[in-house]
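Q: Convert this sequence to structure tokens.
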Amino acid sequence: MLPLAGDGVHWTLEQDADLNVNLVHLDPGHEVGAHVNDAVDVLFVGLDGTGEVEVDDHRHDLAPGVALHVAKGARRRTRAGGLGFTYLTVHRRRSGPAIGGRREPRT
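A:
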């Protein structure tokens, strides 16, 4: 499965799970720009290559087997190193917005 090519999410855990898990890849030198996630804490786990996650202006280097917790409300930016970066993001599933009224429970 590794190495991957092309920026973005390459796999996501099924929608009915309590957790949201994404397998993400960034090509060499590419990044996910700075943003704030006010909804959930996120765990990053490095799988292949190297990268850095900047959290509130503090740089954290990630590599295979290295994990980093990013608290909700923190400003973060993720950048791939010279060989690209493949990593997991793990967080509790966010509840989607209720649009169009009440939803019936699943059976």
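The chain has one domain: 8-92.
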